[in-house]
């Protein structure tokens, strides 16, 4: 296996849908949005942290509208209840493994309090948002190796522009359709009133039964040494846009991430935690606003089908990128996952 064979899904001519991609075809096509990783790969460890920052200002003071949609709730995420009650996001989004959720929650609280000393005293508390997938097949998950320092580092080092995909950050120990999964991303351009906007998606892929994967060209893929097992993985879908949307519209967009998963052959099994979050940077909710009535920006509902298509297309491409960028991996107790990139290279050869 050669790591050099790992490249984008488009490099293998896996094109999903007719819409135009953003300049770097990633969630960071949304101006100001940043992504950071910390990867832990040592001995039996195959895990890490990925942080998504909607903007690089004070998120507690300048919240962004958001909505979460639970496709199948076999997961241990933190913060979803308040996101859907109040319709906003006020911390970075942290992705990690299942047993790292509590650590990430604490780290996000400390990060928010450091920038806002009035939290819990002169003003309300903060709602950390943490998502997880179980990387216990490739990773020694009982080591509980993710630390608050790792969370801090992922946030502090988050940057705009292109970022690493595949077996990195929270995706280091993930599996997808029997192959190596991980972090993937994609974006689409949406023209409204003569101006180009973007919708981008980042996924943490850890779902799908081996043999169920359907590629955009219709091929069904069976990984080498595949064994029939129950669907008990998870996937986290983060959808971002610079189009101004309200909470209800964001909820509708988040649901379309599930359409992308279904296109690939997933059926959201009993043991799978499949969750989508959508947020908009098109307007902000000011924590200290003293006005009784505040203006809200939102999309004309008659144009929202463009976002629905973009959400489905980018989810598919992001999942494929999470796999084609990931090399073959051997992990804890000699567990092993092949690379989809190798399978595609052999098929073309």
From TrEMBL:
Gene3D superfamilies: L-amino peptidase D-ALA esterase/amidase. Pfam families: Peptidase_S58. One of its GO terms (molecular function) is aminopeptidase activity. Belongs to the peptidase S58 family. This is D-aminopeptidase.
